[in-house]
Specification:
30% of the residues lie in helices and 27% in strands. The protein is an alpha/beta fold and 256 residues long. The chain has a single domain, classed as Ribonuclease Z/Hydroxyacylglutathione hydrolase-like (Metallo-beta-lactamase, Chain A), CATH 3.60.15.10. The strands form 2 sheets. It has a 7-stranded mixed sheet. Strands 7-8-9-10-11-12-13 form a 7-stranded mixed sheet, with helices on one face. α6 packs across α9. The model has no long low-confidence stretch (mean pLDDT 95).
């Protein structure tokens, strides 16, 4: 059995759990170790089961807890090679112990227990930003977040996936009419910013995704609404869906 949980998704911290009950992995770790333990406990998972952390990018809400976890529990960390090469200060700030940081290239496969993972490029204003594919028991799970635009590679990967974790960060009207300064609105809506609700549903349509479930993640507290996205998903989602607000999402699926 594979279990997954959205431990947190948004500007206050991000982390996604995948586990078979014995071996667990995290995509991102934006929390203190104490907070991570509390969130893992909600899903009957211990930090000792976490055998690796895979980073999407080095913005603090996705990475600030990676170093403390590595130092306290000797947890291996995997980061895209371009992020490591281009952001030495950010890497140094994480203070990952020697031997625990591994550089990975796009589509390079990494095996952790029963899981096989590889990363793919995303368009975000943090060099070396990636999404991740997690494979288990012949099924593929895709996590695509913090991307200002999508591409043909991502569309193909989504089409091949059973479960999709997909960013739906903002509603266009809420963003443009909201309180953010103009420069920040432009950053969010740019090709290196975030995916809007419209972008998310266009991606589902263009990819032909027909897996078992889509989880909408990384909703903005200011520029999106759970109710608004729920209403849109009821009309437009081609598959069963869950709108994830601050880590209130989890699921189980049998292995094949």
């Amino acid at each position: 059995m594979i279990r997954w949980a959205v431990l947190g998704s948004g500007s206050s911290g991000n982390s996604y759990l995948f586990s078979d009950g014995s071996v667990s992995i995290l995509i991102d770790q934006g929390f203190s170790v104490a907070e991570l333990k509390r969130r893992l406990a909600r899903f009957s998972t211990t930090v000792e089961s976490v055998k690796a952390v895979f980073a999407t990018h080095l913005h603090p809400d996705h990475s600030r807890g990676i170093g403390p976890l590595a130092r306290m529990h000797h947890t291996p960390v995997y980061v895209h090679a371009q992020a490591i090469a281009s952001q030495p200060t950010a890497i140094d700030r994480l203070n990952i112990p020697s031997g625990l940081l591994t550089s990975v290239e796009l589509f390079e496969q990494v095996e952790i227990g029963p899981f096989t993972l590889f990363c793919f490029a995303t368009s975000h204003d943090c060099t070396g930003s990636v999404g991740w594919i997690i494979s288990y028991g012949g099924q593929q799970y895709m996590l695509l977040t913090d991307a200002g635009m999508t591409d043909e590679v991502q569309l193909r990967l989504a089409q091949e996936s059973e479960v999709l974790f997909l960013e739906a960060n903002y509603d266009q009207a809420m963003l443009m009419n909201g309180p953010y300064p103009l420069y920040l609105k432009r950053r969010i809506a740019s090709s290196s910013g975030h995916l809007s609700n419209d972008d998310a549903f266009a991606f589902l349509d263009q990819s032909g995704f027909r897996g078992s479930h889509v989880y909408f993640i990384h909703l903005s507290d200011t520029n999106n609404s759970v109710d608004l996205l729920e209403q849109r998903a009821q009309r437009s989602s081609p598959v069963p869906y869950t709108v994830c607000a601050k880590g209130q999402c989890y699921g189980m699926i049998g292995s094949t």
